[in-house]
Specification:
- The chain has 273 residues and is an alpha/beta fold.
- It has two domains: 4-103 and 241-271, 3-Layer(aba) Sandwich (Rossmann fold); 107-234, NAD(P)-binding Rossmann-like Domain (Rossmann fold).
- It has ten helices and twelve strands.
- The chain has helices spanning 18-29, 46-55, 81-86, 105-113, 131-142, 154-164, 174-179, 221-228, 236-252, 258-271, and strands at 4-10, 34-40, 59-64, 78-79, 91-95, 98-102, 123-127, 146-150, 167-168, 182-185, 209-212, 232-234.
- A six-stranded mixed beta sheet has the order 2-1-3-5-6-4, with helices on both faces. A six-stranded parallel beta sheet has the order 9-8-7-10-11-12, with helices on both faces.
- Helix 5 links the parallel strand 7 (123-127) and strand 8 (146-150).
- Bound molecules: 2'-monophosphoadenosine-5'-diphosphate.
- The site of 2'-monophosphoadenosine-5'-diphosphate has 14 residues, from helix 5.
- Residues 128-133, 151-153, 156, 186-189 line the site of 2'-monophosphoadenosine-5'-diphosphate (ATR).
Length: 273
Amino acid sequence: MARYACLVIGDPVEHSLSPVLHDAGYEALGLKEWKYAAQRVLPEALPAFAANLRRSDDVRGVSVTMPHKEAIMSLLDELDGPAALIGAVNTIVPDGGRLRGYNTDWLGVLEALRPVCNLSGERVAVIGAGGAARAFVYGLVQAGAKVTVYNRTPGKAEELARRFDCAVGELGDAAAIREAGVVCNTTSVGMGDGPASPVPEGALRAGQVVFDAVYNPYETKLLRDAAAVGATVVHGTEMLLHQAAAQFRLFTGRAAPVEQMRAAMMKVVLEKL
Ligand code: ATR
């Protein structure tokens, strides 16, 4: 019997890779009393979920995914600094009847990029201006990058850039995006079977690092185009892995066994290809 439970909540949630990642971590560290499950929570059931969580004595952590990352905030007792600035929570830690919210997505962004580039002083183009983009821009600015935001709706790019004191570009300006050392897609463009890329023709070049937050499919059109011109690609699965590793530490108090977690995730991802 598991003594400590962790959950991922979302709607839909059945395809979440979080159970695979966290369970692999428990197994690698021999944490036999820990168990991780996925729970579908409809938007209207979120307040009741939070109330039950406050009363539960076995749940040690909750991963929060779409569409709850913003709505959950008003139901919590405390937010850590980054979650408040980003305006989204992907992690809840219950503690003595109180619920603390964190955001580990920005850590996932930085850890995913760490092996391939030094962000300090680097020019980074962020495509998109939604919730995911806020976590990217927060993390990138923390790391000392010079960020320019590009978005289909320019007003939203301006709002995001103002919030984090960075620049705005035009999404159609391939030459400007091409000058960036790192290009990050935070939009949903490229998800599923869609053959679309979020950047215009000519925006990618050799020597760039191209990072796609979309991880389904594993090889998006953006990443295939990037590899074809000789850019270094960073898959969305790396962000997923590292945001989960940061959660694992918050939930269990133990450093995450990242290699074993990656291996378990990639086994599932590659089986689908
Ligand atoms: P998330 O929380 O996942 O970031 P979101 O807040 O809805 O989701 O943001 C989605 C982002 O993807 C937005 O930047 C959106 O652009 P708009 O602000 O113009 O809506 C972008 N996006 C979604 N579909 C897009 C498309 N087909 N082309 C370009 N951008 C798109």
